[in-house]
Amino acid sequence: MAEELELKDVVEKINGKFDEFKKANDKAIEERTTKTDGTTAETQAMVDKINEDITELRKTQNELEKRSKRPSNQEKGDLTPEQELRTSAYIKYIRHGIGGAASVQYTPEETRALAGTSDADGQFLVPIEFESELLMNAFDLAVIRPLCQVGSTSRDIVQLGALSKPSVAWGKRAVAVSQQDLSTGGKQIRIRNLKALTLISNDTLDDAEADVMSEVRQAFEMAVAEAEDDAFAVGTDEDSPPGIMANTAVLANYEFSKVADAISDATYNGIDVLLDMVYALNSKYRRNATFAMNSTTESLYRQLKDGEGKYLWQPSVQAGVPVALIGRPVINPEGMADVAANSYPVVIGDFRSGYKIRDRSGLVITRLVERYAEYDQTGLLLKKRVGGQVVLPEAFIPLKIATS
What is the mean pLDDT of residues 73-99? Predict the structure, then answer.
């Protein structure tokens, strides 16, 4: 409840600050159009300061919303005796490892429970309930994954079936298979390895009262969410899932900013290209469309008005409701490009239709003991297997910044 109240307070502060911002920005616009010397330095400094304050509050809002989605007390379902044995044996493994002078003793049943759930490299898979909790929380903490179509797989390469809308026909007419059906059926998602390393004090591992698995899970879930957001948005590394903004077919759908090196200038208010982007989407994608941009780019749009003098950006009306740009929700994958010549800082699209994510079950945590022994800590290296792929480039329209 405390977090909910805090989030509510932040949303109220943003709304109050935005009221201040509009007054200051209106004054700056008036000075720019009526004064020979344009907007005074004092007025512009006020606008910039309030805008920076809102940007920081927006980051706080995003963090609080993520934290509020994380369960404070994980409710574990009933485990079978075999699962309970497996879980207790795995916790013992995380605390003490296996082998070596300091190793604790395992019962034959515990040894069999661990050995029976190992991957191809001989590493022990984490218990299924721990994996489910971590993935669920990482899902809640991410900004892109919740908007996409997510599935699971047991393969290293996922062969996707036809992705377009089914063909239909009335009466005795034959149902024709479109070329799109044939081409989309050949798309693949390659599963990649995501690794994350955290250090945990040996005192904590030795503390019988410490909830080690909870601490480990919370250490990894945010790192996983942030890494996946960056990859799904802008990933270009061969070892990571290819990002939406790295897809050449998506980038080919761009609309120009119509302003050199910027989203607006004194003669162009920046709204036309946003409307062009929205209506360049097919209506079936438009109804679920979301804007994606980093926080810096969002702060630039906060200053813009439409032809009727209404601000394009609107804050949340209440906690849990996203901010909006021309009536469309906005998310902030922070890895997206800043506004600069030839950059693609904004995209709008139906993420669920356009980008698919596949998780391969089987999380592995490797203990790294000797490497951090002098610091009296143990390294825990998590390996998660996940893939992502743009499957319908037409579901996304990016903004490209013009050059001078």
Answer: 79
Q: Do the Cβ atoms of 356 and 391 come closer than 8 Å?
A: yes
| 339, 288 Cβ separation under 8 angstroms | no
The 3-state DSSP class for residue 74 equals: coil
pLDDT digits (tens, 9 = 90+) for 80-92: 888 889 888 999 9
* Residue 45 pLDDT: 95
Nearest-angstrom CA–CA distance, 362 and 81: 21
CA distance 94 to 381: 11
Query: Taking every pair of C-alpha atoms in the chain, what is the biggest distance, in angstroms?
Result: 87
Q: What pLDDT was estimated at residue 326?
A: 94
For the stretch 12-68, pLDDT in tens is 999 999 999 999 999 998 988 888 888 899 999 999 999 999 999 998 998 888 777
User: Mind listing the pLDDT tens digit for each residue in 339-350?
Assistant: 999 999 999 999
Q: Are strands 346-349 and 396-402 parallel, antiparallel or unpaired?
A: antiparallel
β-partners of residue 255 are 399
The SS3 of residue 325 is: strand
CA distance 114 to 92: 10
Three-class SS of residue 34? Answer: helix
* First-residue to last-residue Cα distance in the chain: 51
Supply φ then ψ for residue 390, to 5 degrees: -70, 125
Of 86, 134, 46, give the one whose Cα is nearest residue 361: 134
**Secondary structure (3-state) at 342:** coil
Computed on alpha carbons and rounded to an integer, the radius of gyration of the chain in Å comes to: 25
